[in-house]
Amino acid sequence: MAFPHLARTDLPAHPTTLGGYARLVREIAADRARWEPLVRYDALTRWYARLETGPGYEVWLLSWLPGQSSGFHDHGRSSGVMTVLEGELTERSLTAGGEGSRALVPGRLRVFSTGHLHEMVNASLEPAVSVHLYTPGLVEMNQYPAGTAQEAAEGAAADPGRHRVH
């Protein structure tokens, strides 16, 4: 073949399905040597760094000190998979049916769809670290004050074609 570089087979396979994205998040979580040296803590805000990008997705590493929160938000057109690597996070979700809360701990995956309205918070007394994969890559994160977050959830339920408030 005149152009052997075009026939390379040693390139990493990029995920394209929910199962593939979940597998990638699990692999990153298990590879402590990859993410641990990158962890930083910021007393003023959550700290984050992009770990990886691929066709149609990106992966972020986040660190959370006790009390730090994302605030209520959605991820625009992106859906994704996340897991906690160290510590514990609490997710508060809003739907037209009300508010729900769940503890997120290492070893468990959390899958979320487009328009998912939630808040992540480190409600524990220890720092936490998490990894988040977004597909497509995260280009918007719409923030909502607590009162308007519930209104947005109710509005989305009333009009399924509208998943967020601008």
Distance separating the two termini:
53 Å
The backbone outline, from C-alpha atoms, is globular
Give helix % range: 10-25%
Radius of gyration in whole Å, from Cα?
17 Å
Helix-strand category: alpha+beta
**What low-confidence regions span 5 or more consecutive residues with pLDDT below 50?**
158-166
Percent of residues in β-strands: 35-45%
* Overall number of strands: 10
The main pleated sheet reads as: 5 strands, antiparallel
* Average of the residue pLDDT scores: 86
Count of helical stretches? 3
What is shown here, in short?
Strands 1-2-9-4-7 form a 5-stranded antiparallel beta sheet, covered by helices on one side. A 3-stranded antiparallel beta sheet has the order 6-5-8. It has a two-stranded antiparallel ribbon with strand order 3-10. It has 166 residues and is an alpha+beta fold. The chain contains 3 helices and 10 strands; from the N terminus they run ααββββββββββα.
